[in-house]
Amino acid sequence: MSQYNQEEETIEEIAGGEFERQAVPQSRLQSWKAFLGMYAGEHAAGTEFVIGPLFLTTGVSAFDLIVGLLIGNLMAVLSWRFLTAEIGTKFRYTLYFHLEKICGKRLVTAYNLANGVLFCFLAGAMITVSATAVGIPFDMEMPKLTDTTPNSLTWVIIVIAIGAVISIIAAKGYQTVAKAANWMSPVIVLAFIACGVVALIQLDVHSFTDFWNIWGEGSEPFPGQIKYTFWHVVLWSWFANAAMHIGMSDLSVFRFAKKPSAGWTTAGGIYIGHYVAWIAAALLYAVYLKSPEAQAMLAGGEAPSVAPGPLANNAIGIFGIIAVILAGWTTANPTIYRAGLAFQAIMPKVSTFWVTIIAGSVATIAGLFPAFAMKLLGFVALYGFILAPIGAIIVFDHFFGKAAGIQPFYAEKTGVKFNWAVFGAWALSFGVFYFISVQYDVFLSFLTLPAWISCGILFLIFSKFYQTKTAPVST
């Protein structure tokens, strides 16, 4: 086994539960190669088969899609490098332990509940993705873009079967699944590239101009979708993983890095998964849109399905079906496992096996409803919008806390269980900006950064009043 694989597997093993309440020791730090493998595998996933086609449903232009994704993903990489990796290698704590030191145990428990539920919904979308591939041999009716509820008994049976298998495997053999996912990721990436190449051939593309003209100047959005501009693409792709970078969830990963420069390795996963794979999946959908079936649906004012299984099957046959199943499966498994860990923090007396089964059951129920996958652009934006401001608490506490005259790690030093300054800053930021989004129909990703900055500033202001006495300085 190569050093690369040894380091990658070590990261997978220790990130699952060691050093939960202490800094990672120097002896367990890993080189940048381990993180490159992890991120390459994590971001070429089942969601990519859905997100690419969904961009086309928004009527995006060629420039807005190709250049917008280039810039938005760069901003995400910079966020990982200069915020998440910087703080992760400074303190070497998990997100939950770091938050507990600032917020108090009770407030972190509430965060764990929200995080766990949102993880379950995301895993449910992955189960939906796999189901669209498993259902092909059964001639299953695929969910439409506008579907919110199950459309057939066959769909229900397949989703429940997939969810049960994934949940049991996640509960009993996560480490094996995590290692298998790393070995499968090159196969999934190869499938994305193959799908893109075949789609280019089917679209009769012979030059860059032909490729550019696939999207051209854009079009009107499909029924039920909003029009995406350049800034929609930039901000959505930047904040698609907002919970992980500016939301600080990946502190739990980068605490094992030797240097903050390990944050640059996220570019490997992002530009493979969130650039090449998204564009390849969009090309698959562009092929389908030229079919008589899709044209008939558009003529009738109905949006053609973005079901990944049939799209991949149309391009590369059985290999495409297998790739979609693997992509959904390998993403849903660790997601359900992480949701189980979040729930276990709330129910510490319940075994890891049973909290994972609970998380898997919630994810399976979510998977029955195609809306989580068909509306994935909106759900991912909401997911980041809810969780990202919590990361601002950590960032502002670290970079600006001393200048603002507040005690860092206030809850740890005073024994506070529920830091009202933290809760007030998050609740006010979330409430005000979510109201603006709903009331004035503002795209949620436009408001994620303002809500994040607002939460950080309010945290500093509220903490000045809340910290009525100086916490004892640790020695």
Uncertain segments are: 1-16
Structural class: mainly alpha
What is the helix tally?
21
| Averaged pLDDT | 86
Q: Write down the CATH topology.
A: Hydantoin permease
Please report which band the strand proportion falls in: under 5%, 5-15%, 15-25%, 25-35%, 35-45% or over 45%. Answer: under 5%
CATH superfamily: Hydantoin permease
Kindly state the percentage of residues in helix. over 70%
> What is the overall silhouette?
globular
Largest sheet entry? none
In short:
The chain has 475 residues and is mostly helical.
Features of this protein?
transmembrane, 21 helices, 475 residues, cytosine transmembrane transporter activity, membrane, mainly alpha, 0% strand, CodB, globular, Purine-cytosine permease, Hydantoin permease
Structural notes for this entry:
This protein is an all-alpha fold and 475 residues long. It has a single domain, classed as Hydantoin permease (Orthogonal Bundle), CATH 1.10.4160.10. The longest helix has 50 residues. The chain has 21 helices and no strands. The radius of gyration is 22 Å and the shape is globular. One of its GO terms (molecular function) is cytosine transmembrane transporter activity. It comes from Leeuwenhoekiella blandensis (strain CECT 7118 / CCUG 51940 / KCTC 22103 / MED217). Keywords: Membrane, Transmembrane, Transmembrane helix.
Question: What's the arrangement of secondary structure elements?
Answer:
Blueprint: H1 3-14, H2 32-42, H3 46-57, H4 62-91, H5 95-103, H6 105-134, H7 153-202, H8 208-212, H9 230-239, H10 251-254, H11 266-289, H12 292-299, H13 308-316, H14 318-346, H15 352-367, H16 371-374, H17 376-399, H18 401-404, H19 410-414, H20 420-440, H21 445-466
Helix pairs in contact: 1-2, 2-7, 2-11, 3-6, 3-11, 4-9, 4-11, 5-6, 6-7, 6-13, 6-14, 6-15, 6-17, 7-11, 7-14, 7-15, 11-13, 13-14, 14-15, 17-20, 17-21, 20-21
